[in-house]
Input
Amino acid sequence: MEKKSLWKRITGSREALLALILILLFIIVTGFNSSFLTPSSLQQLIKNNAVTMVMALGMLCVMLVGGIDISIMSTLALSGMAIGMLLKYDYISGTIVPFIIAIAIGIVCGFLVGLVISRADVPPIIATMGFMYIYRAMGYLISNGGEWASASALGSFSDFATTKFLGLNCVIWIVIVCYVFFYWFMKWTRTGRKIYAVGSNPEAADVSGINVKNIKLLVFTIMGLLSGLGGALQVGIYASAMPNMQKGGEMDVIAACVIGGVSMSGGRGTVIGALLGSLILATIVKALPLVGIGSLAQNTFKGVLILVVVVVNIILQRISDRNALKGREM
Amino acid sequence: MSEYILELKGITKIFPGVKALNNVQFQLLPGEVHALMGENGAGKSTFIKVITGVHKAEEGEMFLDGQKVDFKGPKDAQEAGIAAVYQHPTSYPHLTVAENIFMGHEIVKNHMIQWNAMYAEANKLLENLDADFDARAEMGTLSVAQQQMVEIAKAMSTNARIIILDEPTASLTRSESEKLYRLVDHLKEDGVSIIFISHRFEDMYRLASRVTVFRDSQYIGTYPVDGITNEDLIKAMVGREITTMYPKPEVEIGREMLRVEHLSRAGYFKDVSFSVRAGEILGMTGLVGAGRTEVVEAVCGITHAEEGKVYLEDEELHIRKPADAMQKGIILLPEDRQKEGLIMSWGLGRNVTLPTMGKYAKHGLNDNKKEREISRDLLESVDTKAVDIFQPASSLSGGNQQKVVVAKALGQEMKVVIMDEPTKGVDVGAKAEMYAIMGELAKQGYAIILISSEMPEILGMANRIVVMCNGRKTGELMRDEATQEIILDLSMEKAGRKGAD
Amino acid sequence: MAGKSGRSINNVPENPVKKMIFSWEGILVLLLIAINIFCSIFSEFYNLSSLLRQMPVYLAEVFLMLGMAFILVMGEIDISVGSIVCLSATLACLVSNAGVPFPAVFLIALLVGTCCGIVNALILTNFQELPPMIVTLSTQIIFRGIAEIVLGSGGSVSVTNTDGFRAIAGKVGQVPYILFLVLILAVIFAVILGKSTFGRSVYAIGTNRLTAYYSGINVQRVRFIIYTVMGTLCGLCAMFLISNSYGANTTTGENFEMDAIAMAVFGGIMSTGGKGNIAGGVISAIIIVCLRVGLGQRNVNAQVILLIIGLLLICTVGLPNLIKNARQSLKKS
Output
């Protein structure tokens, strides 16, 4: 009995399936390119996708309550550009202060989005579409109409992206800390579980005394916070800030979540899922050139991938519903 | 100190357009099981929501242990030891059973949820209830009966002193109901006071010591269960002799219109056959969840049956969607007026002409003048109490909304009209009017299928009665051979089997 | 079966003129006048002839608003339109350069748009459980992605034979053809949405999908038609874009979905479905076009205009709700 339930839990769990897919992908990619599965190459993979990976955590929260946020990359550009310009004109220096500023800007941006959605009942897609343009435009405006902040202008800020701490790149440490924190937050705190409750059944959550509006405000603020962090990371990793950075990148984040099993209608999704989803996406994108799909076709491929994942999900759901019905005794 | 654990006085609750509760009172003794009865729409559910703090009453007072209380929200009621198990479990389908039980009062230590402790505690509660599932199971994968058990466990986990069960047996099989009875006995022994809402007299006799009856949003009376008869109760609930309610006209039964043969849909119903003739009212009854609605939905193309045939006037039909069914002359008037029957924010006129607007359009453009005339005529023909055809459907009372739904069916040549619970949530006066309309339609030669859970309605209106249980047709009775007892037996017939799995 | 009580129900509508003045469309007309006054003060070049000369660039998006209005009234959303415009424009340029005669190019652009619309429609009607947002979000990347593949590493294409495109960019006197086309299509779409049984069923679906279905409306067919026509309109938009820029690139049509949605929503068409009409959408579209021409004449950054449109979008949806909520909480206390 115990053994069976354990086996059932592994085969029935979405995360196990995703981990299996990831391992398979690793094996296939290593077949094409034997240097793929080396520690340095894997570190590079995570570092290059650190922004997406971190922001997937915020998108997880947003999608858990049945929302979506397509303004995130504009928030990223605004906060990244802000610290870029501040560094360029020597208002600030170092590493910690720019990080704090970027995160603070992100929190404010996310808070505003959350206010509009939770208090003015604007549908998330409309609200975040509006803010996508507003924040992007503000990013342009603070860049004096399109200036860049290049590596030399950033000074010592981007050094963290090339320094190692205990054998691991600092960027990777940040990703790890974020994931560990969120794993704890979503699973072990009451607030984390409230997010799940609101996504699973908002009416029931309301009846059991959870403030649904505040939870919505919270998730969009978390999303903003992580977008701000993403902005600082982006500027650090690529050692430059420009107003149009990561344009369209929100799709990668959404794709990572969708692949990781986060439901579009809310209530379903885990931190591990988001992690595996973003790693799978990153590996696939890295593998595409190896199988002869050029960089030009990458976007098309990503789009098709999301579509296939959501459609296959629906088909699987239909099959399992049908089987459940057939099993019902009459 | 009052002798009552819970007492409510002079409660009035007003919703836009309706007085849902009118000066009602209620007293609950410590450790008693108190049945609350009344027809659909009598105000029972609203009353429960007032007790649990979901709704706030406009007038009236509530006393707990003799102390006046004023709940601001559901949380206050919870803290005061009142828990409700609603008719439709209000659970979180994606979360585990343990989380559902402990939502809002998780076991927390140093701001960390103690999962193991929660699972252990939840399993202990479930064991007490003799449950056959684990606290780690996902809520959405459980059956309705199991989910209800979780809700009861949840109520117990808050150490509730008063537990309200809102129609808990409505979707349970007989053996599951028996289990629930034992559970209620068990709770009673522990000193918990229980308010039990049910339509089934059986439940009341088995469990309750006193019964309170509501009718038309008003308090009728509280009676000891010993010494009360079915007739007394029905009279209290309905407010008049049953025979006068059902003006069933003598109608010449015509030829067969609709015939359904061996219809099956996996998981919903199996091998269902019946037929209905012109001028005949065919009653379909059974417990909630017996598959009645699902059968007629498949007939009308809303869902699709996997096996079986449907004939209209001996011609086989292949219906894929409701539009096809209407084309052929079959219309379903759905149970849920607000979600399926009407567009509440639209004017009455547009609602009435929605199924037929294509019929009198010119080159695809609406003929507004003709539409207005037709919709007025239709609305007047069913005697709708409305000022004009532009007022929104939401401004009408439940009974009048139902008349508008019926009017929708009359705008075109229909042969078969299927009414799913047409008097649900309708006051007594409007009910009688509904029955009059039904009789009129039968006189005009419509074949009518009446789906209803209300026994007197089925017995009073139907020429023939089809009884379903658990997805199967368990019997067919002629009007003069049907009694409450036979129908009840048939609708529970195979119920014992399901509890096995 | 006459009513027994003989109660009679009024079926004479109120005087429509009174309703019209106090409607959102009435306010929009006033706003249009105000915007024109503002623009003529803001820019010394702003007058009717400069407006007519400069408006065609922006008018192409109004086609998209017409289709988007139907989709929004239905309570859904299509954010792939900008990408469909990009793909149609790209392919139209390429076939034109391959020597295909102009009328055929025109048809091909419409056809490409229609096909993209059909792709959306097929997915959405076959998998009704999927939210339109996620489907059109992924087709948004796919359609633009295909354009990126077709355009290759250069990322842009120019038409070599511009005769046909010059022709459709022509004018009658000072009035460009496209303005006529926009107005004609607006009237047709307004009649379909406002007066036809098809339009009525769109409103029914947007207000209460289940009731519409139970009342015999073929919901999936209506959705299929609307998403397909949306695609065709994107093709049309693409042709007029090329007639202005004589080429296409990977960023062609970017942000168009937001512009179209903003125009419709600002025009009183609720994103939650069931409310609004084409007239409001067209007036608000003209307001936005005038604003863009006026601001453009003083070289205001395009980003600022996007910012204004974004704010407009959020405020028109959010403010009424905010006021309603505030009123309710006042009432409660």
Remarks:
- Residues 494-501 of chain B have pLDDT under 50 and may be disordered.
- The longest strand of chain B covers residues 18-28.
- Residues 240-329+414-501 of chain B form a domain with the Rossmann fold fold (CATH 3.40.50.300).
- Chain B touches chain C through 47 residues (CB under 8 Å).
